[in-house]
Design a protein that fits this description.
alpha+beta, eight-stranded mixed sheet, 5 helices, Aminopeptidase, 205 residues
């Protein structure tokens, strides 16, 4: 596994981006406790202060093929997690992001998305999907600026996003407040984890 990157935040802190390991479980537990209520809401679409033991085990144990998780680490602390879960269609995977508040706005979500894309391409995944709340403008902006965005649908109050794993030559999609429209079929969008597993959703950058 060589999916590793490094970054420096505006305040000078050094961040390492790398795959999540089983031995990261204690740090992952601490991370869950430090994430704000708003950030949890953007991920799970409902208030989630704590995760069950089953959910923690599900999120920490990944196979790096059908399920890949990356972490942003400062020192011994996890400050962000990005993951994909492969759909039943083997060429598709759903992505999700979660960052602590004080590292948001530093471009980490974009870096994590690019690393996820490298891992996905190696494993035969060609498109990403994501489900985003319409007021989560920062995450929508990350996708719009990624060069990977193919299209968006507004379905039952959720913005369903489809991206190419490789950057595509298209005009950037302007991110504007989403207004209610007639529901449409969400094409390839879906979820790779059972609802009972507390699937993380895309969150703020």
């Amino acid at each position: 596994m060589d999916l590793i990157d490094e970054a420096e935040l505006r305040d000078g802190r050094h961040v390492v981006l790398r795959p999540l390991l089983v031995e990261d479980e204690p740090a992952y537990r601490r991370f869950v406790e430090t994430v704000s209520d708003e950030a949890q809401y953007y991920r799970f679409f409902s208030p989630r202060r704590y995760l069950s033991e089953q959910e923690i085990a599900h999120f920490v144990h990944v196979d790096y093929r059908d399920r890949l998780a990356l972490v942003a680490v400062i020192g011994e602390d996890i400050v962000g997690v990005a993951r994909y879960d492969r759909h039943r269609d083997p060429g598709l995977a759903e992505v999700a992001f979660i960052l602590v508040d004080d590292v948001q706005g530093n471009g980490l979500a974009g870096r994590l998305l690019r690393l996820l894309a490298v891992g996905a391409e190696r494993n035969g995944i060609h498109r990403f999907t994501a489900s985003v709340l319409p007021d989560n403008h920062k995450m929508l902006q990350v996708f719009a600026k990624s060069g990977m965005l193919l299209h968006r649908h507004f379905v039952d109050g959720i913005v369903e996003v489809t991206m190419a794993v490789e950057p595509v030559a298209v005009e950037p999609v302007a991110v504007e407040p989403v207004v209610a429209v007639e529901p449409v079929v969400a094409g390839e969008a879906g979820t790779a984890a059972e609802p009972g597993r507390g699937q993380e959703r895309s969150g703020k950058a």
